[in-house]
From TrEMBL:
SUPFAM superfamilies: N-terminal domain of MutM-like DNA repair proteins, S13-like H2TH domain. Residues 2-94 form the Formamidopyrimidine-DNA glycosylase catalytic domain. It catalyses: Hydrolysis of DNA containing ring-opened 7-methylguanine residues, releasing 2,6-diamino-4-hydroxy-5-(N-methyl)formamidopyrimidine. Pfam families: Fapy_DNA_glyco, H2TH. SMART domains: Fapy_DNA_glyco, H2TH. InterPro entries: FPG_cat, FPG_N, H2TH_FPG, Ribosomal_uS13-like_H2TH. The keyword DNA-binding applies. PANTHER family: FORMAMIDOPYRIMIDINE-DNA GLYCOSYLASE (PTHR22993). Coiled coil: none annotated. This is DNA-formamidopyrimidine glycosylase family protein. It comes from the Bacteria. It comes from Paradesertivirga mongoliensis. Belongs to the FPG family.
Length: 269
């Protein structure tokens, strides 16, 4: 699933079509009528978190790539596109994605201050949202698109490792400075992600995501599907601190081949 920085890259890549009129449209999306694009001019391209937005005068199209969605610019795949837009000098094709129609102003639909890559991002507002859900696990909080639009599982794992925070902490247990660091690094890492992705070196910079050994402590990472979303979480039980009174009992969690989780005391707790 593309994370926010990847959607920003797509937005930048299609700017040549801004101001151009759609010559024809087709696709197997059941919620879009191809005729609605007839002679419609693209007003803008926007992104909000993991959403790619194609803006026309009276409506917008939201593309969400889900788990397996892809796109092609000025080329196509053998499979039928969910949505294909043809212009006089090129085409945009979207596959295996969710396509939705949004009528009216996007400002009424999206809170731009929640997008970690938006110029309107509001860190203080994010902190306030987090404090309003004190029992939420930090591994869930980082994936909450209403708080951190654009943050996905890669960013989640890397941010928690970067700031040495155990994924099973709850928001209420975090000191103020740690909560602020969590919010700040969600943005910082997203821009690092963007830069590394453009340079085709993103995976070379992963320190925790999909890794087996902690580069700080040289011990095996734990790997579990944690939180409400059950997304893969890689973490070090030594250097990623747990702030609660009792270290979480995780021996019953399923092991996926890295190691059996053990109940250990976290440094500094």
């Amino acid at each position: 699933m593309p994370e926010g920085p990847s959607i920003v890259i797509l937005k930048e890549a299609v700017q040549s079509f801004k101001g151009k009129s759609v010559l024809s449209a087709e696709g197997n999306s059941k919620v879009i009528n191809p005729e609605m694009f007839s002679n419609q001019r693209v007003i803008d391209f926007k992104s909000w978190g993991k959403h790619f937005l194609i803006c026309f005068e009276t409506f917008s199209i939201r593309i969400h790539f889900m788990l397996f969605g892809t796109y092609r610019i000025n080329e196509s795949k053998a499979s039928q596109a969910r949505l294909s837009l043809k212009f006089d000098d090129g085409e945009l094709n979207f596959y295996a994605c969710s396509v939705q129609l949004i009528e009216g102003s996007l400002d009424e639909v999206y809170d731009w201050s929640a997008d970690v890559m938006s110029e309107l991002w509001d860190g203080e507002k994010a902190i306030s949202k987090l404090r309003s859900q004190p029992e939420t696990l930090v591994c869930d909080a980082l994936l909450d698109q209403n708080v951190f639009a654009g943050v996905g599982n890669i960013i989640k794992n890397e941010v928690l490792f970067r700031i040495k925070l155990h994924p099973l902490n709850i928001i209420a247990d975090l000191p103020d400075e740690v909560l602020k660091e969590l919010v700040a690094e969600a943005v910082n890492y997203s821009y690092d992600f963007l830069r590394w992705k453009k340079e085709y070196v993103l995976k070379k910079h992963w320190l925790a995501h999909t890794k087996r050994i902690c580069p700080r402590d040289n011990v095996p990472f734990a790997k579990h599907h944690l939180g409400k979303s059950k997304r893969r979480t890689f973490y070090c039980s030594l250097c990623q601190k747990f702030y609660g009174e009792n270290y979480p009992e995780i021996k019953s969690l399923p092991d996926k081949g890295i190691r059996k989780a053990k109940r250990v005391k976290v440094k500094g707790s």
